[in-house]
Structure prediction request, 708 residues.
Amino acid sequence: MEVTSLPIKLQPSNIRPIAFRILSKKHGLNINTDALAILTETIGYKFGTDWKSVRSQQFLEEVAKVWKIEDRGLFIDGDGLKQVLKDMNSKSSNDTKRAHRTDTLVDITNDGNQNHTHSHQDKQISFEDKNMEHEERDDVPINWQDYFKVVSPNNQPTSIFDKTRKQFDIVFKNNDDKDKKAKRGGKLESIVAELVKNLPASIESFNNRYYLLSDRLSRNENFQKKSLISLSALNSFKEGKTDSITGHEISLIKNMLGRDGQKFLIFGLLSKNANDEYTLEDETDHIELNLSQAFKSQGLFYCPGMFLLVEGIYSASGGNSNQDHGYIGGCFYVSNIGHPPSERRETSLDVYGNLDFLGMHRQIAPVTGEKITKISKKFKKRLVLIEKTLYNHKLIFVGTDLYLDDFKVLDGLRKFFQKLENSIIESIEDEEGQMAEGTNIPLALVFTGSFVSKPLSVTNSSVTNITNSESYKSNFDNFTTIVSKYPNIVSRCKIILIPGKNDPWQSTYSLGSSSLNYFPQSSIPKVFINRLEKLLPKGNLVVSWNPTRINYLSQELVVFKDELMTKLKRNDIIFPRDIQEQEELIAQDDQRTNEERINNLIQNKNTHLPSKIKQARKLVKTILDQGNLQPFLKNLKLINLAYDYSLRIEPLPSVIILNDSSFDNFEVTYNGCKVVNITSVVSLNNRKFNYVEYYPGTKRFEFKDLYF
Prediction:
């Protein structure tokens, strides 16, 4: 029989030796002062005069195990310890019906409300076993439809990177509560509340990117303190010169002070100062860059707003901003510049504890209603196996800029729908009237805007008395009429609509200008598509945001509409060395004979690559290395900071579908992430309908052309 002792008040000095022996010496964890005070009060309350007993030591063992299972890092802080103790108590209360105490210290929630808790059991089921019990049961069937969903930024759980723990905090949203608060508080109060939330988000936007990329670099074997290879050595290594490899480590800018003339490798945000000089800024300081002799890593774009690795020599006497106070001063003479290498999706997910970033697996939660934020590897393997059995599943992504006010586009749509309807009928007949897993029945049709050729504005049309909004609605009514003629498409396919720059309500102030695009862009208002919504079965019309994510079992697909290639080319920095090298190549080519030019073309295989492929690879490598769909400064983009996380592509998704009408179709795979671009649905020069079919079971894309 368990003996219950009365609570007593202990001092942190009483618990410190025991905590050091179990948490630090045995488990390699470090506990700070706040956490030790919380732990002291908890042990005094739970165990009383038996605080030196085996039971209290087992309790500390359990705390250490849970802390490690949740990947909270090496330092135990007060807030994290409160959450761990709360999780342990809630687990214990779900497994026991024995007597319990209430109102313990550690059950204070983030909202400041106090909840009742239960005492810790002697034979408590460990957190890991309990958490995985509902995920790893092989006898529980998995319905693939539960894991095929479209996730817009407003429904996506908020994920914030904690620089201290080097882990993500996942916060699930409750849109119903948000709507109730907005109605109760009024429109003005809700606007003020949003502005207050955006203020810290604006400050932390670039900080979060910096700390996340720094964490990724710390795991890269090329940037470890003892085995780091410099950028110049990496380039030499690729060319076969291995004797120039030397060891360095990434230094903070403030650490260069007083070390004039020494060579450093630094990492930070590239921007311009008031004197129009390029600067690099990290968490400690900023410094002016001299790029006159800089060699850049090839196959990448370099724009202000990107986080870059810069190698060079620090000079305390250089620079044009030495008169500024509170700043290191001097100039950094850059010899090499490059991007932080990206990391494969599987590696990142393992490091961050296989978190559920899209909130798809909450249905695995126990009957208690707890929201699971992690997915076991065993469960992920089951999802992958199911994917391979569903090899006939496919998604169709129609080309971008589906102008519904263009008769040529409407003609192409009719041809496309007719072909798709016939293929569905053939598939049904082949399966003897059963839908089964027919190869010609797509799970969803993804249509990406803009859905009108001219931006929707508040002014009236100059030709008729019909307002632009009425005209916009009539375009979707026509689209509904066309779709209604194909009953199998209506009954069997989801239709997903993603807005473009000319669609409401963004177009009312941006007027279709790409520089005024506001990301993420909210969905098309349902007032314009009510007829289409009535036509399709419930749930078959998905009005999504831009960008949006599609979860298919274990895969994460990102669909994004923007003229990325144009933005990158327009803001790409031209280094002085680029011009110099180009002039040298032209001079060398002029001195060669025709035979030497032919031999040079044969030896240099890279010259055989078409320019379009090189540009596509540059785009893909740039955005994946930066880990963001909009790696620019604030003057080049407009971001809704409340949903800033929706533009982050870290960890890398499985697939990224870009809808860039300014560039051709392409498919590029980099670090296991497949990136595809789909150009305009109909070209201006011909009558060719452009779309792509994706088979997630085999991760295969097929580009299709349909002449009409």
